[in-house]
Design brief:
Strand content: 5-15%
InterPro entries: DUF7869 (IPR057191)
Helix content: 25-40%
Largest sheet: 5 strands, mixed
Number of strands: 7
Radius of gyration: 19 Å
Mean pLDDT: 86
Low-confidence stretches: none
Order of helices and strands: HEHEHHEHEEEEH
Number of helices: 6
Number of domains: 1
C-alpha cells in the first residue's frame, strides 16, 4: 500500500518522513525498511526517514480517520464493494478517507511480493525491534542509520548483500488475488 500511495497520491516530494505505529508485523519489519532503502537507492526519494511510536502508544491520526469510517459503517446498509467505497468517501467531511479499490482503472491497487524481492538484495537488520528511528539516504547506498530513541546515538548498518545490485526499472512479482473458493462463496451466500 505504501508503493500505491507514492504512485498515486505522492506530490513529487523527495524528502520523506513517515511516522508509524510500532507493529512489527505490519510496519516495523525488514520489508518496509528495505522498501525505504530501495526508494532511496533508485532515486525516488532522498532521504527516507521512518519513526516508530513507542510500544503501547499506537493512537494517532490514521486511527482517528478509521474511527470516523467505523462510525459511518455502523449506521450503513451496504451490499457491494462500491457501496463500501461510498461509505468510506462519505465518512470524513473534508475527504480525508479515500477508498482504494483493486479494480479502479485510474489508480488500481497492485500487490507486489516485496518480501521475496528484497530478500535477494538486503540482509535483515539485527535486533530490528529495538530501534524506533531509521534514516536512509542516497549518499550511503545499502546503509540504514538506526536509533533506539530520537536522542540515542545513530548507528550505521549496511544491509546490502555482497554483489547485489538494485535495478531502478525492476519491480517485484505481482501477487494476484486468489478470490474465494466455492465453499466460502456458498457460506457467504447462506
Amino acid at each position: 500500500m505504501l508503493h500505491h500511495h507514492f504512485m498515486y497520491h505522492g506530490l513529487g516530494e523527495k524528502d520523506v518522513k513517515l511516522h508509524m505505529d510500532n507493529c512489527s508485523g505490519q510496519n516495523k519489519n525488514n520489508t518496509v525498511i528495505g522498501y525505504g532503502l530501495w526508494r532511496a537507492m533508485t532515486g525516488l526519494h532522498d532521504p527516507v526517514k521512518f519513526s516508530m511510536m513507542e510500544a503501547g502508544h499506537t493512537k494517532f491520526n490514521p486511527d482517528w480517520h478509521i474511527g470516523l469510517w467505523k462510525v459511518k459503517w455502523r449506521h450503513s446498509t451496504v451490499e457491494t464493494l462500491d457501496e463500501i467505497a461510498v461509505s468510506v468517501s462519505k465518512s470524513s467531511r473534508n475527504g480525508h478517507n479515500i477508498p482504494q479499490l483493486m479494480d479502479d482503472p485510474a489508480a488500481p491497487v497492485i500487490f507486489y511480493d516485496w518480501a521475496t524481492f528484497f530478500k535477494r538484495i538486503f540482509k535483515p537488520i539485527p535486533s530490528l525491534k529495538t530501534y524506533h528511528h531509521f534514516r536512509i539516504d542516497n549518499n550511503h547506498p545499502g546503509t540504514v542509520f538506526v536509533r533506539e530513541y530520537a536522542t540515542s546515538r545513530e548507528i550505521a548498518i549496511n544491509i546490502l548483500k555482497a554483489g547485489a545490485e538494485v535495478n531502478p526499472n525492476a519491480l517485484p512479482t505481482v501477487i494476484h488475488p486468489k478470490g474465494l473458493d466455492a465453499l466460502m462463496q456458498w457460506y457467504l451466500f447462506q
